[in-house]
Amino acid sequence: MLKLTELLLPAGLNITFLISAKDHRSLCGYANIHTRLNSFPGFQFHVIQGLYEGPLDSAEKLTIMFDCMSEKTTPLLRKLVRDSPVTCVIADGIMDFVLDAVEGTGVPVFSFRTISGCAFWAYFSIPDLINSGELPFQGTYPL
């Protein structure tokens, strides 16, 4: 999503990038993201506080993270769309609560998955791996 932001900013668009506090800290600690993006007057980060920041080592914790994200972000996004001159929302396809937040506002939502080329290729290879007998794995494998 940040790469898409970098591609859109030279067109003079105003972009507010919603980001978790944890991800924002990581970006600030390991990348020159503010130097690259703050040179565009229409760009701003909106850091979302209070999201789940614990480990994601189980399906239960992943569910907790998404539920917390939906609970905190839906009202925030509704307020931003209502109070700002928003012309569209671009959201990661896994964030389905964005559609609920924007519903009824008339603001279009562009939703897509931001996975890497490798992940995309792996997902589309699964049917071939099943047909060739490579999946599911047979025997026991140490994790």
The rounded distance between the terminal residues' Cα atoms is: 32 Å
* SSE sequence, one letter per element: HEHHEHEHEH
Structural class by secondary-structure content? alpha/beta
What gyration radius follows from the Cα positions, in whole Å? 19 Å
How would you write the strand order of the largest sheet?
1-2
Name the beta content range.
Answer: 5-15%
Characterize the biggest β-sheet. 2 strands, parallel
Principal-axis shape: globular
Specify the CATH class: Alpha Beta
CATH topology: Rossmann fold
DSSP helix fraction: 40-55%
What name goes with the CATH superfamily?
Glycogen Phosphorylase B
Number of strands: 4
Number of helices: 6
Number of domains: 1
Low-pLDDT regions = none
Would you mind describing this structure in some detail?
This protein is an alpha/beta fold and 143 residues long. The chain has a single domain, classed as Rossmann fold (3-Layer(aba) Sandwich), CATH 3.40.50. The protein is built from six helices and four strands; from the N terminus they run αβααβαβαβα. The strands form two sheets. Strands 1-2 form a two-stranded parallel ribbon. A two-stranded parallel sheet has the order 3-4. Strand 3, helix 5 (97-102) and strand 4 (109-112) form a beta-alpha-beta unit.
